[in-house]
Amino acid sequence: MKDPNGSGTVHFRSMKPEDLPDVHKLSLATLWPHRLEDWKFILEIGEGIVAEDGTGIIGTVMYWFHGMDYAWLGMTIVSPDHRHQGLGRDLVSRALEATGDRTVLLHTTADGVPLFESFGFRPTGWVHRHQGSVFHYPFVPLSAGERIRPVSPRDEAALAEMASRSSGMPRATVIKHLLTVADIVAIDRYGELIAFAALRKFGHGFVIGPVIAPDVDRAKALIAHWAGSRAGSFVRADVPDTSGLSSWLTDMGLVQVDETVQAMARGKPPLPDASITRFALLSQSLG
């Protein structure tokens, strides 16, 4: 591909760990909040493609496999100086070729919807981003026999099972890596884990997610636990429009930002277990 800006031919290749400082700079140039550590985490569990010319890396896209049937697509970034020239389309096309016949899921802003619709993606819902400093965190009581406790490595299988049921696709690899970068608490009911929520450093502060629970009250109890532990800090949570949490989060100080994100799928979307729900995402890129 010829670079219209005259910086030479554009080459596409696999993303490598040594590229991360440069792709981090690219994301900062487009006002994405990711830290270098956030990039390291997502590359450890996925694959990436970079576009580069004589000036360096000018575009990225990433994808993550979830078993043989599903994949997520994300981190599609094009340098501001190289937009509207087909580079994003070339990156997405290469990523979709790598995912094969899998159903591919993603989240995108309104600007990205036409591009992904042209590849056969269809809307499946919305995601609301809430963020701010927590100034009020309500006490949410649990039922008899239930308590919130930190998880340990021996809980990994139970967490993976809940994450997989709530998303309708395998999530064991994601959970294994999440345990290395996040603090996680779970609701224990007479020795059985029935819900959990993670908190980790991200961007300008902290992100709460995923939050997986059988009902909204237990999801609120977990979110309130983490929000209370980080009162006064910058906290973010990305919640599906079906979560029923938006007004509650806003009252707590985590206001909804103007930009709503479109969830999309190419292929048959996964079917989550109706008895357990993903109330907050791990991230917009990872679902």
Automatic annotation (TrEMBL):
Keyword Transferase included in the entry's annotation: yes
InterPro entries recorded: Acyl/Acetyltrans_Enzymes, Acyl_CoA_acyltransferase, GNAT_dom, YitH/HolE_GNAT
Top-level lineage group: Bacteria
GO terms assigned for molecular function: acyltransferase activity, transferring groups other than amino-acyl groups
Residue ranges occupied by any N-acetyltransferase domain in the UniProt entry: 10-141
Keywords for the protein's UniProt record, in alphabetical order: Plasmid, Transferase
Entries under PANTHER family matching the protein: BLL4206 PROTEIN, SLL0310 PROTEIN
Protein name: GCN5-related N-acetyltransferase
